[in-house]
Write a structure and sequence with these properties.
Structural class: mainly alpha
Distance between the termini: 62 Å
Order of helices and strands: HH
Radius of gyration: 20 Å
InterPro entries: PaaA2_dom
Strand content: under 5%
Protein name: Antitoxin
Number of strands: 0
Pfam family, one: PaaA2
Shape: extended
Largest sheet: none
Organism: Pseudomonas frederiksbergensis
Number of domains: 1
Oligomer: single chain
Length: about 60
């Protein structure tokens, strides 16, 4: 059991409607991802693909 009270979370949103709107958007994105029938990609493969993409973008900008 915790004896110290934690401070409330500080919201990034100005109004409750902004927070609710973001919550609806996020939940829809998560549900769409869960409903996606495509197979999941392994983490290591995604990271390797992203490293290759970043490297190719850097190489494009380094060539002058």
């Amino acid at each position: 059991m915790l004896s110290a009270e934690l401070p409330p979370i500080v919201s990034e949103f100005t109004t409750e409607e902004q927070a609710a709107s973001y919550d609806r958007w996020l939940r829809a994105k998560v549900q769409a991802s869960l409903n996606d029938p495509r197979p999941n990609a392994p983490h290591d493969q995604v990271m390797a693909d992203m490293r290759a993409l970043i490297k190719s973008k850097r190489n494009k900008h380094d060539v002058r």
